[in-house]
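hey can u check if this looks right to u? its 124 residues, i copy pasted from the old doc so theres a chance i mangled smth
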Amino acid sequence: QVQLVESGGGLVQAGGSLRLSCAASGVTFSRYGMGWFRQTPGKEREFVAAISWSSSTTNYAGSVKDRFTISRDNAKNTVYLQMNSLRPEDTAAYYCAAAYKGDGSSWSSSYADWGQGTQVTVSS
């Protein structure tokens, strides 16, 4: 089982940037596809971005494409989400998730392990 710990959330003004990190432990990280999802109260969790276990594939939700970038550092067992040009509608709790040999899927059901989340709040 993968243990996942997110960090890097906070309060930022619209147009600003944040970088989220998700540190993994307990498994061989390089064999896991990783995803970022977000959720606001009363809404379903939605896909943000994903990267395959081989790093050959990245996948983005249309609402964040060209603003957010997912990357991974296998030496540090960490996946990142660089978020630029943030908007108030990006405000949410952000969760990272892991899938063994994951191919960068946008489906939350593809991911077996989840972190506790980190809050991102974008003020207008």
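The first strand starts at residue 3 and ends at 7.
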